[in-house]
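Justification of computing resources. Each target in the renewal requires a structure prediction run like the one illustrated here; the chain below, 114 residues long, is used simply to show the kind of job we budget for.
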Amino acid sequence: VQLQASGGGLVQAGGSLRLSCAASGSISSTNRMAWYRQAPGKQRELVARILTDGTITYAASTKGRFTISRDSAKNTVYLQMNTLKPEDTAVYYCNLGWGLYEYWGQGTQVTVSS
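Resulting structure tokens:
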């Protein structure tokens, strides 16, 4: 299984970015897709998660500003990020899992300038 993320970049505070992550390979039809992020000197944290049945979980810091969605037919997950803040600056990783299996994308840098 491989995950290919795209869409990161540099944006001013208050701006928007959309991340995409496409998964390929032998993937269970029932799975969870998620975005995590890791800022310098900090632990990786969950940003948002979406299950195959559409159940969504957001981190408190992103709820109301970020929207996660998925196209299960394409095994692709998206993260629409609005009203970005400097504290959102981090490397964003997509994640795919089911049962005991877990896979990570290569990470994409998001930098929000003040």
